[in-house]
């Protein structure tokens, strides 16, 4: 079955860096687009980054552009999010999710369990 | 950027009630609208895609409608497991996706 497992979360100081990983299994990872979505404590969902199946195309929300970098290693079935210049407002649970296409509609059909990033001194 | 606005932000209802949640897009998104359910401490779960298509395995008491800028999610008869937060999400301006702010459905 499809599984997405995030890792790499934790406590980091403002201005610091962190790298999240998302290990994928149960599907052909190299065929699918992937995204990162975050959720600040008690808040809603925020899409933050997208990567194409080959890794050649990447997009970012304005809130993280220039500070976060999405990447993937299709040989390792893994997705990454390199986060730098972290701010208190980046404190959130970070989810990876698969983008699937159903009858022409893009959907997020599988999600990881999430990993918590806390930015605090 | 396309902004998604849900109403209400929270809602109290009883088991067996019929509930409707509304989502409005800041510009026309045709039927590129998905609905997700999120229970506390869990990842979101896809309920409806393409504004009105039920995701496999989702109970038929959930339904969606709308096109253009106005959309609704309806739960025909609330069950205890339906008390959760619901999000709409547009996939019109892919891959610059956006979510509504969420509607928290609570037990009355």
Q: What would your notes on this structure say?
A:
The complex is a heterodimer of chains A (121) and B (108). By secondary structure, chain A is mainly β. Chain A contains no helices and 11 strands. In chain A, the strands form 2 sheets. In chain A, strands 2, 4, 5, 6, 9, 10 and 11 form a 7-stranded mixed beta sheet that branches. A 4-stranded antiparallel beta sheet of chain A has the order 1-3-8-7, with no helix packed on it. In chain A, strand 9 and strand 10 form a beta hairpin. The termini of chain A are far apart. The mean pLDDT of chain A is 97. With 108 residues, chain B is an all-beta fold. Chain B is globular, with a radius of gyration of 13 Å. The A-B interface holds A 33, 35, 37, 44-47, 50, 59, 61, 95, 97, 99, 102-109, 111-114 and B 31-32, 34, 36, 38, 43-46, 49-50, 53, 55, 87, 89, 91, 94-102.
Short précis:
The complex is a heterodimer of chains A (121) and B (108). With 121 residues, chain A is mostly beta strands.
Overall radius of gyration of chain B:
13 Å
Residue-averaged pLDDT of chain B: 97
β-strand percent of chain A reads over 45%
Q: pLDDT below 50 for ≥5 consecutive residues: which ranges of chain B? A: none
Rg calc of chain A: 14 Å
Helix count from the secondary structure assignment of chain A: 0
Average pLDDT number of chain A: 97
Most extensive chain-chain interface: A-B, 25 and 25 residues
Number of DSSP strands of chain A? 11
What is the terminal-to-terminal distance of chain A?
Answer: 40 Å
Q: What is the count of β-strands of chain B?
A: 11
Structural class assignment of chain A: mainly beta
Structural class of chain B: mainly beta
Break the fold down into its secondary structure elements and pairings.
The complex is a heterodimer of chains A (121) and B (108).
Chain A: E1 3-7, E2 10-12, E3 18-25, E4 33-39, E5 45-51, E6 58-60, E7 68-73, E8 78-83, E9 92-102, E10 105-111, E11 115-119
Parallel strand pairs in A: 2-11
Antiparallel strand pairs in A: 1-3, 3-8, 4-5, 4-9, 5-6, 7-8, 9-10, 9-11
Chain B: E1 4-7, E2 10-13, E3 19-25, E4 33-38, E5 45-49, E6 53-54, E7 62-67, E8 70-75, E9 85-90, E10 98-99, E11 103-107
Parallel strand pairs in B: 2-11
Antiparallel strand pairs in B: 1-3, 3-8, 4-5, 4-9, 5-6, 7-8, 9-10, 9-11
């Amino acid at each position: 079955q499809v599984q997405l497992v995030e890792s790499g979360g934790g406590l980091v100081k403002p201005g610091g860096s962190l790298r999240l990983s998302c290990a994928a299994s149960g599907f052909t990872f190299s065929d699918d687009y992937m995204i990162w979505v975050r959720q600040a404590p008690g808040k809603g969902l925020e899409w933050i980054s997208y990567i194409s199946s080959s890794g050649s195309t990447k997009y970012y929300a304005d809130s993280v552009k220039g500070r976060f970098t999405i990447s993937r290693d299709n040989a390792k079935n893994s997705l990454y999010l390199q986060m730098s210049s972290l701010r208190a407002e980046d404190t959130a649970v970070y989810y990876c999710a698969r983008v699937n296409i159903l009858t022409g509609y893009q959907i997020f059909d599988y999600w990881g369990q999430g990993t918590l990033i806390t930015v605090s001194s | 950027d396309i902004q998604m606005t849900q109403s209400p932000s929270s809602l109290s209802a009883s088991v067996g009630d019929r509930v409707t949640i509304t989502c409005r897009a800041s510009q026309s998104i045709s039927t590129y609208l998905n609905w997700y359910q999120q229970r506390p401490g869990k990842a979101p779960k896809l309920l409806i895609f393409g504004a009105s298509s039920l995701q496999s395995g989702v109970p038929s008491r959930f339904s969606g409608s709308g096109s253009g800028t106005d959309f609704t999610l309806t739960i025909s008869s609330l069950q205890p497991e339906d008390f959760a937060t619901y999000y709409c999400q547009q996939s019109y301006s892919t891959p610059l996706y956006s979510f509504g702010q969420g509607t928290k459905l609570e037990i009355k």
